[in-house]
Amino acid sequence: MKKAQIEEFFARLAAADPAPQTELRYSNAYTLLVAVVLSAQATDIGVNKATEKLFKLADSPQKMLKLGEAKVLDHIKTIGLFRNKAKNVMALSRLLIERHGGEVPQSREALEALPGVGRKTANVVMNVAFGEPTIAVDTHIFRVSNRTGLAPGKDVLAVEQKLEKVVPPAYRLHAHHWLILHGRYICKARKPDCPACPVADLCQFKAKTLAS
Questions:
Q1: CB 187 within 8 A of CB 197
Q2: Which of 44, 138, 162, 165 is the catalytic position?
Q3: Which among 70, 79, 69, 77 is positioned nearest to 40, based on CA atoms?
Q4: What is the pLDDT of residue 212?
Q5: Where in the chain are all domains bearing CATH 1.10.340.30?
Q6: Is residue 85 flagged as an active site residue?
Q7: Known catalytic residue: 120?
């Protein structure tokens, strides 16, 4: 996709949704961090159901540790990999208190040093909580970037690095939300809804679905 096409691509997504938001529910940087950790291999809807009561009881690392792993497990048992995730939530809560005074750090390096936090999770927290123009490449962004020709790459890191180069600065802050939502609701994995796509004419996907 050429520079002018990429500019138009994001201009259209921005016009359709000027202020995109994460669909995960959270009340502060800590609950956002926990929600993103829980969202690995799980849907945002499933995470929101599990955290609705959990976050009312524990919206800080101190409260989460006081609640205890058994009760955390009980709240998140409907989510995939819940046992491991409960351990990570307790461990990262402990480290936040020990290393960061109970606050969520703003640097990628400090975030990735927390249990259960990889590059994608760190990028989401930096973007949503702290307004950094990071791009967290998930399965939706990976698909959209490759399928449309926007930022093709063999793996998520390659796609992230390509997006950082090609996304115009004016659109970088919200780019990852636009791409996630586009992949989730229009450029879907099995059957993309090309007739409803605002950027279909810019997209290089050869097997576009046609209107019936």
A1: yes
A2: 138
A3: 79
A4: 46
A5: 29-130
A6: no
A7: yes
